[in-house]
Amino acid sequence: MCGVHFFFFLTITKINIVFRSADGTQQSTDLQLNIGAFQTTLVAPIENSSTIIASGQNFSVSANNTNGNANYDLLANGTSINTATGATYAFTDLNVTTNKSYELQITQGATSFSKKFNVIVNPGTVSLAMAGGLEDGINYNSGDATRATLVLDAPGKDFVYVAGSFNNYQPNSSYAMKKDPSTGKFWLELTGLTSGVNYHYQYWVVDTTPIANSPSLVKTADPYSTLVLSPYDDPWIPAASYPSIPAYPAGQEREVTVLQTGQTAYPWINTTFSKPKKEDLVIYEALVRDFDSDRNFQDLIDKISYFKNLKINAIQLMPVMEFEGNESWGYNTSFHMALDKFYGTSNKLKELIDLCHTNGIAVILDVALNHAFGRNPMNRMWMNDPDGDGWGDPSTENPYFNTVAKHSYSVGSDFNHASLLTKNYTKRVIKHWIQEYKIDGFRWDLTKGFTQACSGGDDACTNAYQADRVAILKDYADYGWNLDPTHYTIFEHLGTDGEEQQWANYRIGESPSKGVMMWGKMSDEYATLTKGYASDVSRVGNSSRGFTNRRLVGYAESH
């Protein structure tokens, strides 16, 4: 018996590696290890760095190699600006007035290396008042689909560029955001847009004198994004769940925000839905990911008869906001106003809500506003990560987050709900889901974390009555009721009766729709009961907790 053997000999010049966290939600940038006799070193600047310079400043590049002469070709924004041959390389780009993405190509025989780096020119910030009535994020012009105004609140930052598909991610000074003198917010009106076209963009946020261990440049999507594209998650989203998903821009990094003027409003069928009374609610909790095999909103739409047969009158969706990764319960939220594309499109969720309302079923949304995770723009703009490549913890300058959680149930980065910026953001999130999606109520996750009074490991303090937490959450409840007087507000607090009574009995005498509902955990008692043992389940009733009205959502199990 004979055989034929094939041998392949490969010349390996470099090995590319990347480090990922155990759950795949965080990863390093691509790392490259060079192998072989011919090696190159970029002496200046640092490889993959972004150097901030004044307009008109010179910019120097130098490199060397081993094993004799090599050919060098320096490209700026894709165009060759200098070539040379030798064992070393040195070149100065004179009078740089525009942002440039450089690539130094170094070749010896069949072996080549590529070194990339950038220059960001300080455009100087123009102080100019923005128009009245603008909100943070995207402001569409109702009378002109060729225009949209972007607003970013970035205290302490020196200048911001808007880079996007409309400038090939190579912004010049005309895409430097202006600064409103009264609010300090950055803003820029985009013009020349085409109605119905999907554009995408991100902010290049610069601090010319960052504090220790913080980045000078952060590239980030808009904090108020309603749709983001992700290089980490989008490639694995099934086309059946999100048909014609916009493509992530090649060559970019981090999430980008989608902008589209001239959008057609969803044609709501049911516009007169009357919510079930709070005391009559029978809630079905659903994780879209695990509800059925396709794991999308269409699965729930197809099972509407199943829900009706159960005689429930409310569906509570576990978080559907943009979270890190595609496989999650959703509590690792990064963009609270953006819908996670893994479950489907915006119109598909609206179709589900519309269908539920037509069948007498309210839709409650689970929201995780105690915290956010590392991809969150407000986290990334003020973080401990000097090169801006990772997902650092909040820095001491962060106006939204605590550097260390002020409670003992820490997860992600801890929002500081005493901060006016955090309160404004939270209220925008509430407003968005009520007005855009007709959401009937929120189940607020981990409300114990809304205090600033405790230290991270102090369980006794965290679980005790905290007056600041009571006041903050009453304010949020009021805001929701002002938008929709019959709105459901449910707190997953699991605290002392004395504190929970403050919300459950709040404004109850003014209207039968008032009073916050509390999440009543009874899983241990019911687990004991199902095993055939005696168990006291009396605390599933509101009177056992001192609530004036029926404002307890008792459950035998959740999640």
Q: What does this entry look like structurally?
A:
This protein has 559 residues and is α+β, with helices and mostly antiparallel strands. Helix content is 16%, strand content 29%. It has 10 helices and 32 strands. The longest helix has 18 residues. The chain is elongated. The protein starts with 13 loop residues before the first strand and ends with a strand. The mean pLDDT is 93.
Measured distance between first and last alpha carbons: 61 Å
Low-pLDDT residue spans: none
Major sheet characteristics: 7 strands, parallel
Q: Tell me the strand percentage band.
A: 25-35%
- Name the shape in a single word: elongated
What structural category do the secondary elements indicate?
alpha+beta
Q: Assign a percent range to the helix content.
A: 10-25%
**Count of strand segments:** 32
| Order of the strands making up the biggest sheet | 20-21-24-29-30-31-32
The helix tally amounts to 10
Average pLDDT number: 93
Instruction: Give the C-alpha Rg.
Output: 27 Å
Features:
559 residues, alpha+beta, 7-stranded parallel sheet, 5-stranded mixed sheet
Topology record:
Blueprint: E1 14-17, E2 31-34, E3 40-44, E4 50-54, E5 57-65, E6 70-76, E7 79-86, E8 88-96, E9 100-108, E10 111-122, E11 137-140, E12 148-152, E13 159-164, E14 178-179, E15 186-190, E16 199-206, E17 217-220, E18 228-229, E19 256-259, E20 283-286, H1 288-291, H2 297-302, H3 304-309, E21 314-317, E22 321-323, E23 333-339, H4 346-358, E24 362-367, E25 371-372, H5 377-380, E26 383-384, E27 393-394, E28 413-414, H6 420-437, E29 441-444, H7 459-463, H8 467-483, E30 488-491, H9 497-504, E31 517-521, H10 523-530, E32 552-555
Parallel strand pairs: 4-10, 20-21, 21-24, 24-29, 29-30, 30-31, 31-32
Antiparallel strand pairs: 1-2, 3-5, 5-8, 6-7, 6-9, 9-10, 11-12, 12-15, 13-16, 14-15, 16-17, 16-19, 18-19, 22-23, 25-28, 26-27
Helix pairs in contact: 6-8
